[in-house]
Amino acid sequence: MTKQICNPPGWPSEVPAAETFYNAALPCLASAWQPLLGRAEFEYSQPKILVPSNGNATSPCGTVGPTTTGFYCSSNKTIYLPMGRIHPDWNGVPIVYLSLFSHEFGHHVQTLSGSLQEAWRQRRAAGSDSPAGLEWSRRMELQSECFSGLFIGAVVDSGGPFTESDIGNVLQAWIGDPTHGTNANIDAWFNRGVQNQIALCNTWIASSAEVA
């Protein structure tokens, strides 16, 4: 992924500021991913962004509640970014929000490549909440986290406002769960992405321990 300066203004302190921040970051993600998708002969299309004003939103994929940090719906190719679960420690730390946004954008990339649809098919076939089904969820989520690291690695130390030292803020922000993986694995896949080799983000062939 080519290095670039990405400098969305401020940080998502309230809904208007969040809309400004994410809409300014969107062209950065588009310019980062479009060449990679093009070389793989996938057609790029822009996702929509929605910051629910009351913390709730209804999508074709279900209801997005105020406790959701971020959510991507493949049916309408929309990234939902409610404000309700934003942690106070993130205030004034824009790179954490940029990482959240790039993670959800990673699910859009998975949709454009068809891997998201296949992962959901496999999860449903295994039973969504079965051990095998949850492992499919983690493979999907950890790849998207790796994609987030790929993008963040492309914007740090690029002449813009973000530096490699900011990456520590990202690694401290996320808490693992059975659908997304352990804290250690979330950090590990993010750091793989930062190495800027997209092949390192292939969670589909990783061992079960690597996606626990």
From TrEMBL:
It is a single-pass membrane protein. The keyword Endoplasmic reticulum does not apply. Pfam families: Zn_peptidase (PF04228). It comes from the Bacteria. The keyword Transmembrane helix applies. Keywords: Membrane, Plasmid, Transmembrane, Transmembrane helix. GO terms for cellular component: membrane. Its main location: membrane. This is Metalloprotease. It comes from Mycolicibacterium arabiense. The lineage of its organism: Bacteria, Bacillati, Actinomycetota, Actinomycetes, Mycobacteriales.
